[in-house]
Structure formats: C-alpha cells, structure tokens
Design a protein that fits this description.
190 residues; alpha+beta; Cyclic Phosphodiesterase, Chain: A; 4-stranded antiparallel beta sheet
Length: 190
C-alpha cells in the first residue's frame, strides 16, 4: 500500500508571501545558518498527517470538507517575527498570526476531530498559528538573529480572508520539499 506524506494547510495570498519574504530578508542580515523557506512553499500548516495510505485520501478530503464547511470564512492578519522554542534559542523562525488566530485554532481542532473519526490521527502538540520562514541549521550568529527577531516582534504585515483549506502532499527532495495540492475545501459550504 502506497503512503503519501501529507498535511492540511492554509494557502497564502501573494501579498502575504511577499510580506513574509521582506521579513525573511531582514532576518537574513544576522548571517545565521538558516534554511529559508521559498515563497512558493509558504503556508500555514493546520494538521500534519504524516504518511497517509493513498486509499484514504478521498476520506481525508471529505473529513476536511466537513470541518471547513461548518465554519464561516474569516479575516486573518499576519504580524510579528518570532521563533520556537524562544527567540534566544531559535530552531524555527516564524511570522505570526494576529487577527484570526482563534479561528485558525478552532478550524485546526475541528479538522483534527473529523480526521480522528476516520482513524487518521494528527499531531497533538498545542497549535500556534504561524508561517514558517526558516529552520536554524547551526549555532552561528544566534545572538544577532535573536536581536533581529526582537527588533521585528511588531513587524507589520498583511491581511487576507480565510475561505479555503487544502490537503497537500509533500515529497522530500535534496533541494527541499515539493508540494502538490490533493484536495480543497471551502469554509462555510456545509
């Protein structure tokens, strides 16, 4: 049985991707060893699924559609730089979600519950809506990076309406992951 590495996500508008790249460019000046995310790969992961049997993909898309359809579309504003686990010990560098964060948490939870019903179990870590900008690969220039993260904590970004979520497959290549949309679900379409 073939399995496909996949996740449920929110695609971003070109304006938000452009804004995220501006923030990445600012943070690159620290000179830290970071693998920066390319704009075509930027998204907000709602539920990481891991390896899903290919025969289960239609059921996953139906579960995603049930959860999305039960929730109205909403506005989202991205704003502020930060890092997990902390700015002074960064592993993952992100652009945060200000407005719409509670709705994204509710949507992520609803999708997870629908997936549980069909036997697809998702990551149980506390969900913190964000756009991953990069992943730290080494310890070089960490202090400079932490300072730039603090200086951009209120980085003003862009807004978009959240009206659709997607199921994405991820194929890992040497140059980075290759994403392919396998299904779409509109919010408020139950």
């Amino acid at each position: 049985m073939d399995a496909i590495r996949s996740f449920i996500a929110l695609e971003l508008t070109p304006e938000i991707k452009s804004t995220a790249l501006k923030l990445s460019d600012r943070l690159r000046k620290a000179g830290a060893e970071v693998r920066w995310v390319e704009d075509e790969q930027m998204h907000i992961t709602l539920n990481f699924l891991g390896d899903v049997p290919s025969v289960a993909i239609p059921a996953v898309c139906e579960a995603m559609a049930r959860a999305a359809g039960a929730m109205p579309a909403f506005d989202m504003v991205v704003r502020g730089a930060g890092a997990f686990p902390r700015n002074d010990r960064p592993r993952t560098i992100w652009l945060g979600v200000e407005e719409g964060s509670e709705e994204l948490i509710e949507l992520q939870r609803a999708v997870g519950m629908e997936l549980d019903k069909i036997g697809i179990y998702t990551d149980r870590k506390k969900f913190r809506p964000h756009i991953t900008l990069g992943r730290v690969r080494g310890g070089k220039s960490m202090e400079a990076l932490a300072e730039l993260l603090e200086a951009n904590a209120d980085f003003s970004a862009a807004a978009m309406q959240v009206a659709e979520i997607v199921m994405i497959s991820s194929f890992l290549e040497r140059r980075g992951p290759i994403y392919d949309v396998m299904g779409r679900a509109d919010l408020g379409e139950e």
